[in-house]
């Protein structure tokens, strides 16, 4: 096990990060010693590393932090978004030598080591991020220890690792058993939430609004969804390529058929896109962080929002589309690059966003979307 003292870190084993295009960064082992593979992506969040590490949507991704200092507040038991760290690897520049926070129980270095997550520190993460912005997200390996193979052998192994495009991963991270998150205060509604890799804060944001949330496995059928007698149906965030999510797309289409109020976040937005007949595609390097400007096209208002997506929906920005479920339009757009960030149906109560209104971590500008879901269920009941 490694510790976070200066002395221990200078003794940490050497580590090397090898990108599939042959670019190499050297540093020191951070967290577990060993090797790992994944898709190299970067996050621009300056805070919220615990939420990032435990977000199941990061499954099979090696996350590069652009913030130069990571681990400053250590690790607490309150902030995780799921029961474990999901990132495949972690890349930081300068780890905190003396973490300090009243809630801290352990150092981040210890937590990564305890959970067997291989990381690397001492990397010029800004140079690495610029590289990924120019060349795009790509496969990567991190190798640490006193003896690792030569660079050419490591590169060959990276090139054998699986690609993110075409990866079907929800069932690997989602709950195997259904469970209930009770409403906080008086129960007003029941929601069936299809778990494709759900973050803990999402049902909590619903529970705060009087919703009893029945979280169902990724493989839930239409019968499973309606067995809980839901006022609304929710489709969560999750890892992998939405082009592989045929099962959830079919379930969502059945929900749209019945006109039950529907809300989706991130992967859930991509599934709504597919359910309506739009395509999805891989972004060059994706959106990850907690400071992305999104415009709500209905009100014109701009929100600062939390993102974690590598794919996006291909829907026209400039017109209302006719779909098998009535008229649909792009409700939200990212102002950095005009990527589709939300969809809404005009003839029935269904909408979704590509970003993260649950805001864990991130700004709370988009919390109104949970209220909008409640309004749809209220209108349906009335
Ligand atoms: N956070 C998410 O739901 C991510 C969705 C999808 N895996 C993507 O990368 O775009």
From TrEMBL:
Enzyme class per UniProt:
ligase
MF annotations from Gene Ontology: ATP binding; carbamoyl-phosphate synthase (glutamine-hydrolyzing) activity
| Ligase recorded as keyword | yes
> What does UniProt give as the signal peptide span?
none
In which pathway does this enzyme or protein participate?
Pyrimidine metabolism; UMP biosynthesis via de novo pathway; (S)-dihydroorotate from bicarbonate: step 1/3; Amino-acid biosynthesis; L-arginine biosynthesis; carbamoyl phosphate from bicarbonate: step 1/1
Q: Which residues bind L-glutamine?
A: 57, 238, 240, 267, 270, 308, 310-311
A single GO BP: L-arginine biosynthetic process
Residues annotated as region CPSase? 1-189
Name the residues annotated as catalytic in the UniProt entry. 266 (nucleophile), 356, 358
InterPro entries reported for this sequence: Anth_synth/Amidotransfase, CarbamoylP_synth_ssu, CarbamoylP_synth_ssu_N, CarbP_synth_ssu_N_sf, Class_I_gatase-like, CPSase_GATase1, GATASE
Q: Which Enzyme Commission number(s) are listed?
A: 6.3.5.5
Reactions that this protein is recorded to catalyse: hydrogencarbonate + L-glutamine + 2 ATP + H2O = carbamoyl phosphate + L-glutamate + 2 ADP + phosphate + 2 H(+); L-glutamine + H2O = L-glutamate + NH4(+)
Carbamoyl-phosphate synthase small subunit N-terminal domain residues are 13-143
So which domain of life are we looking at? Bacteria
Please give the family membership noted in the entry.
Answer: Belongs to the CarA family.
Q: Quaternary state and partners of this protein?
A: Composed of two chains; the small (or glutamine) chain promotes the hydrolysis of glutamine to ammonia, which is used by the large (or ammonia) chain to synthesize carbamoyl phosphate. Tetramer of heterodimers (alpha,beta)4.
Q: What does this protein do?
A: Small subunit of the glutamine-dependent carbamoyl phosphate synthetase (CPSase). CPSase catalyzes the formation of carbamoyl phosphate from the ammonia moiety of glutamine, carbonate, and phosphate donated by ATP, constituting the first step of 2 biosynthetic pathways, one leading to arginine and/or urea and the other to pyrimidine nucleotides. The small subunit (glutamine amidotransferase) binds and cleaves glutamine to supply the large subunit with the substrate ammonia.
Please state what the protein is called: Carbamoyl phosphate synthase small chain
In its UniProt entry, the species of origin is given as: Streptomyces mesophilus
* Taxonomic classification: Bacteria, Bacillati, Actinomycetota, Actinomycetes, Kitasatosporales
